[in-house]
Amino acid sequence: VHADIESTPQSIYFPEIGTKAKDSDTEENIASADEKVKLTDTIFFKGLVPDLEYVATGRLMDVETEEPLLDGEKPITAQTTFTPKEGEGTVDVVFTFDGSSLKGKNTVIYESITQEEKEVGMHADPEFRDQQMFFPEIGTKALCPETGSQMALPKKELTITDTVSYHLVPGKEYKLTGTLMDKESGEPLLVDKKPVTSELTFTPEEEEGSVELSFTFDASALRGKTIVAFESVSYQEKEIAVHADIKSAPQSIYFPEIGTTAKDGKDGDQEAFAEKETQIIDTVAYKGLIAGESYRLVGTLMDKETGKEAKDRYGNKIEAQTEFTAAASNGTAKVVFRFDGREMGGRTLVAFETIKKDGREYAVHADIEDEAQTIYIPKLGTVIHDDDTKQNLSRADTDV
Fold first, then answer.
1. Which residues of the chain have pLDDT under 50?
2. What CA–CA distance (Å, rounded) separates 222 from 196?
3. Closest among 390, 388, 284 to 336, alpha carbons compared
4. What is the per-residue pLDDT for 385?
């Protein structure tokens, strides 16, 4: 008789494995899609033959497609060789790779154990939560609630709302942190020497959703500026997702500003003739408009002496307007004033300009003392006299 329940040579093993994945930073199955990602998949095994050498191989898969995920052109895999002392235990498989392309991905780790190149155990279940690894993603859309658009007025107290869309693991508590940036400098926007920030803690019920983060601050010095909202999501004090693109149009808020230069339409100087068809061209330089959007530029000529609207010989206000599409955030547009100026000799005119969109006024340049906005209309008179009589009477001589 040979009947030893502990005898290894008499035993037949039916291996079984299970896995639990975690990120090295969060210690959970949530990872930031960074250039350097380190994941540890712990394999729980039963039924292995002690003192034999095994190889554990892991593959990172896309949950949705069940296709291998790539680091560049290579599948993301990891492997470890181990020799168990007992038939039951654990072994770690460590993945190190570039995960910057995995934002918003739900991934799963498939594990296989081989002995002398023969597979003796496998765990490949895309629905198994402990095998899954989540790479959160966020996107943002900034808006000024007062204007209902991405354009804002430089007010003493202004509120900007940033709607943050997310792809996160539901049921966990996250902290959303926002910072307003100065697009021109690429540095945080400072108000009273302090950065403008905001925070919010939330627990999503679904993987996909959105949450609003509001900033209230003094924007009175921001005329002509563009600011950009940067957002970060952290879990247990570890940053797991960030949206920080200084060139991102949806993240931007614009504070328009304009300046003008008025010229005579005939010779390009700042003196115009008091004639029937007087023409003044006002070139408006703008900053802080949204590229690709349409605007209305409205101009009015003012009488510098009275400070009131100038009027032509028929008593009509002298106005002009044009619609244009901003090719870029900064640029120029022209407004042409045409009027009967025959009775305007000796007057000084100043061009006032306003930029409007959807009926709302966003920027004004109305400085009655601004020389660049000013056009002079000389008043010409003549006196003729005879050199001999010193009067307007002459002798009909051959030499006058």
1. none
2. 13
3. 284
4. 66
Residue whose token pair is 């008499």: 10
pLDDT (0 to 100) of residue 313: 83
Residue 197's DSSP bridge partners are 179
C-alpha–C-alpha distance, residues 310 and 303, integer Å: 5
Q: Would you say 144 and 222 are in contact if contact means Cβ atoms under 8 Å apart? A: no
pLDDT for 7 equals: 76
Q: What is the 3-state secondary structure (H, E, C) of the chain?
A: CCCCCCCCCCCCCCCEEEEEEEECCCCCCECCCCCCEEEEEEEEEECCCCCCCEEEEEEEEECCCCCECEECCEECEEEEEECCCCCCEEEEEEEEECCCCCCCCEEEEEEEEEECCEEEEEECCCCCHHHEEECCEEEEEEEECCCCECECCCCCCEEEEEEEEEECCCCCCEEEEEEEEECCCCCECEECCEECEEEEEECCCCCEEEEEEEEEECCCCCCCCEEEEEEEEEECCEEEEEECCCCCCCCEEECCEEEEEEEECCCCCCECCCCCCEEEEEEEEEECCCCCCEEEEEEEEEECCCCEECECCCCCECEEEEEEECCCCCEEEEEEEEECCCCCCCEEEEEEEEEEECCEEEEEECCCCCHHHEEEECCCCCCCCCCCCCCCCCCCCCCC
Say if residue 52 is exposed, middle or buried (CB neighbours under 10 Å; 0-12, 13-18, 19+).
middle
Beta carbons within 8 Å of 238's beta carbon, 6+ residues apart:
25, 26, 32
pLDDT value, residue 381: 61
pTM above 0.90, yes or no: no
Q: Check: CB of residue 106 under 8 Å from CB of residue 112.
A: no
